[in-house]
Amino acid sequence: MRTETLAMILAGGQGTRLGKLTKEIAKPAVPFGGKYRIIDFALSNCVNSGIKNVGVVTQYQPRELNSHVGNGAAWGLNIHNGGATILQPYSSVEGEKWFKGTAHAIYQNIDFIDRHNPEYVLILSGDHIYKMDYQEMLAFHKMKKAALTVGVIPVPIEEAPRFGIMNTDQTGRIIEFEEKPKEPKSNLASMGVYIFDWAMLKKYLIDNQAKERTMEDFGQHVIPAYLRNNENVFAYAFRDYWKDVGTIESLWEANMEFLDPTHALNIRNSDWRIYSQNPSAPPQFLTAASNVTNAMIVDGCYVAGEVAHSILSHNVKIGKGSVVKDSFIMADVTIGENVTIEYAIVGEHARIHDGAQIIGKEKEIAVVGYSEEIGGLKDEEA
């Protein structure tokens, strides 16, 4: 049976700019918004767009990500003639093992894609926060008779040098691609969302692998090759909320934006839910001494201190006299008594001992790593 559209989520990135937070897990598995992980947005977009065949391509530190995605049941993907499939690097006949780039990862999974026999392949990044109906982009792709459609988002022109920029003609056809240009000619930044006609992309990848073996990345190699050969390449402009959370500051900022009940992402919209794999936890408990304002507090939390403009994930404990402000606290964190945390991200399973202070600034966010301990007796003091 032929699948019209197969989605491939590229989720193997290390995310080095997130520092301590990606030391032990891949960036798409980093927690977000109290009860989600970053990859939940791409997976949920697929399901809400009616795309039920999804390959999740992993590589760096995949254990947490593999466990989270599982068989896709949390997203309704554990179905007959559909589902989520974890795709990890393997040793091929050519002796290659690790994926060298985004395009090479797709090349290494040609056999998996061919089993679904898709007409179109939707290629997504697993590390962006957004809601998007991919069927609307697919309809645009068909209308333009495109070989490749690139999702783009208009950004302020002063920010354009940070992105891959697509320059188009009046019909929306891409005529030039610039990678992080110093003097950009447009403000259409690539979102890392692509729709390819599979037959053509497969031919490009196989032909290149048989000759130059240079086609490793979509932005650096595949898109320029399509443009050189005058293929029909179009830009699909997306104008809703989209966030690349690849830095500590952008991850913190996205979480703080998430607290706004009028946020453009509209997380409470029941017509486009963001699904996730969540643990079973008891209800949250706020003691008489607690003081909570403008905060998200997820199940399993125990709060005996003050929480303001912050997100507490599952099973966070905050002791008496402690203050948490303008911060994102990940799951299973224990915060002792008389602790002060401001402008911070605290990683899962961290332990903050009595009296500790973790104070950052809006442009210089403090970070506590996974299972890290702050304060308390040192070995020589014990």
Topology, please?
Layout (H helix, E strand, L loop, with lengths): L4 E6 L20 E2 L3 E2 L1 H10 L4 E5 L5 H7 L13 E5 L14 H7 L1 H7 L3 E6 L2 E3 L3 H10 L4 E7 L9 E5 L5 E6 L8 E10 H13 L7 H11 L4 E5 L4 E3 L3 H11 L26 E2 L4 E3 L2 E2 L4 E2 L2 E3 L2 E2 L4 E2 L4 E3 L2 E2 L4 E2 L4 E3 L1 E3 L4 E2 L4 E3 L6 E3 L4 E2 L8
Parallel strand pairs: 1-4, 1-6, 4-5, 8-12, 14-17, 15-18, 16-19, 17-20, 18-21, 19-22, 20-23, 21-24, 22-25, 23-26, 24-27, 25-28, 26-29
Antiparallel strand pairs: 2-3, 6-11, 7-13, 8-11, 9-10
Please explain how this structure is put together.
The protein is elongated, with a radius of gyration of 22 Å. It is of the alpha/beta class. It has helices at 39-48, 63-69, 102-108, 110-116, 134-143, 198-210, 218-228, 248-258, and strands at 5-10, 31-32, 36-37, 53-57, 83-87, 120-125, 128-130, 148-154, 164-168, 174-179, 188-197, 233-237, 242-244, 285-286, 291-293, 296-297, 302-303, 306-308, 311-312, 317-318, 323-325, 328-329, 334-335, 340-342, 344-346, 351-352, 357-359, 366-368, 373-374. The protein has a 7-stranded mixed β-sheet, sandwiched between helices. Strands 14-17-20-23-26-29 form a 6-stranded parallel β-sheet, with no helix packed on it. Strands 15-18-21-24-27 form a 5-stranded parallel β-sheet, with no helix packed on it. 43% of the residues are buried. The model has no long low-confidence stretch (mean pLDDT 91). The chain has 8 helices and 29 strands.
